[in-house]
Design brief:
CATH class of the largest domain: Mainly Alpha
Shape: elongated
Low-confidence stretches: 1-9
Number of strands: 10
CATH architecture of the largest domain: Up-down Bundle
Order of helices and strands: EHEEEHEEHEHEEEHHHHHHHHHHH
Strand content: 5-15%
Mean pLDDT: 92
Structural class: alpha/beta
Radius of gyration: 25 Å
Strand order of the largest sheet: 2-1-3-6-5-7
Largest sheet: 6 strands, mixed
Length: about 400
């Protein structure tokens, strides 16, 4: 980032202006509505288009209608006054956005509309989009350059696919990372077109959580696993739908993550209770021990992760490369469900339950050692940082 205007940060302008027009919807949102929602999330109250006159006072943010901006770009754009932002398109540096005083708005709009930097006023700084943003996304736990894409009406799939990839967490379990993306893309696309809200999808998932519990408890493992796997898939869809349609909310985040946090140990309990009905009971003492290990181990495991976040300000899974790789298989719901599914197919759900109890203990030991190591390194060096930053 050029240092000339780094200190020149003012309050976020109250008006955004879309230069030009584009009749292509992405994820069932018009460009105007997408920009409106995105800017509203950073405090910009008004969204205008070419049919409206430019504001005559205050600051104004401008964006090119034919480009789709990663939301990670919108925040820095809204905060930095006195700039024209460029993107590299077909080997050329093209102006695509600006944040200027209203007195310079007409000149900035002309630059964006004409696709040339020749008319940029001398007191406006030209900044490449890569200088404006960070490649590390804390919330999604990944290092990735934010996208800024020209909308091509005849080639929308690559644009929507790139947007979908941008909504995906970088550090997650192997099921979510390797098996869900393609089907989740199409289901998310369908739900967006159908006008379904992320909270509706989450609610369907909650119903399936309850169904799976009672099916497991009665020993109907095949049916229970079907309900459980659909729920885990929808758990991927609801978050992507919220990010892609810019409908994330504090309630939705709490609702979704609250369900995710609470339900896994109940599934393990129900699985254990259903062993007798299925015909593969464990001795009472062994079953009690396994269930205690699973429930207490789940709580302890999440507590260790929480302590790491509180002490170091980042997730334990993004500290070093080994932590990110271990997250693929750590004893969380999806990897555990794979083990239980294999065990059910083999006709030995009892062995599956014992296996995930053992794996839970192994993971607690691993993460506890990592927490202790991080504390030692911080004591020695004063700070620890993520390998992704």
């Amino acid at each position: 980032m050029n240092g000339n205007n780094t200190a020149a940060r003012n309050a976020v302008p109250g008006t955004a202006y879309m230069v030009g027009d584009c009749g292509v919807d992405l994820w069932s949102l018009t460009p105007r509505e997408r920009f409106r929602r995105s800017f509203k999330r950073v405090g910009v109250k008004h969204m205008l288009g070419d049919e409206s006159p430019l504001p005559d006072k205050g600051g104004v943010i401008m964006v090119h209608a034919e480009f789709v901006f990663d939301h990670a770009i919108i925040g820095p754009l809204a905060e930095r006054i006195g700039i024209v932002v460029t993107a590299d398109t077909n080997g050329l540096s093209v102006p695509v956005a600006a944040n200027v005083d209203a007195s310079l708005a007409a000149d900035a709009a002309a630059c964006i509309r004409g696709g040339s930097l020749d008319a940029v006023p001398s007191d406006i700084e030209v900044v490449n989009v890569e200088e404006l943003t960070s490649s590390y996304d804390f919330a999604l736990r990944k290092r990735e350059t934010p996208y800024l894409l020209r909308i091509e009406p005849d080639a929308l799939h690559p644009v929507e696919w790139r947007m979908f990839q941008g909504s995906y967490k970088g550090v997650t379990d192997f099921v979510t990372k390797w098996f869900w993306p393609v089907p989740a893309f199409w289901v998310t696309k369908y739900t967006a077109r159908s006008g379904l809200s992320p909270n509706f999808v989450t609610t369907v998932g909650l119903v399936l959580v309850v169904f799976a519990y009672f099916l497991f408890e009665d020993g109907f493992y095949t049916a229970g696993l079907a309900a459980a796997w659909v729920m885990t898939f929808l758990d991927t869809v609801d978050g992507k739908l919220a990010r892609l349609t810019l409908t994330s909310s504090k309630f939705g985040n709490l609702y979704d993550h609250g369900i995710d946090l609470i339900h896994p140990p109940f599934w393990y309990l129900a699985w254990g209770f259903g062993l007798a009905a299925y015909g593969t009971p464990l001795e009472t003492g062994i079953l009690s021990l396994v269930l205690w290990v699973l429930v207490v181990g789940y709580v302890v495991g999440r507590a260790v992760e929480g302590v790491f976040v509180r002490v170091f300000g980042m997730h334990i899974h993004v500290w070093q490369k080994i932590d990110s790789r271990f997250r693929l298989f750590t004893a969380r719901r999806n990897p555990n469900m794979v083990v239980l599914t294999i065990a059910a197919i083999a006709g030995r759900p009892d062995i599956g339950l014992i296996a995930i109890a053992i794996w839970t203990v192994v993971c607690i030991i691993f993460h506890s050692v990592r927490l202790y190591a991080a504390m030692g390194i911080r004591k020695r060096d004063g700070v620890i940082t993520s390998w992704l930053t």
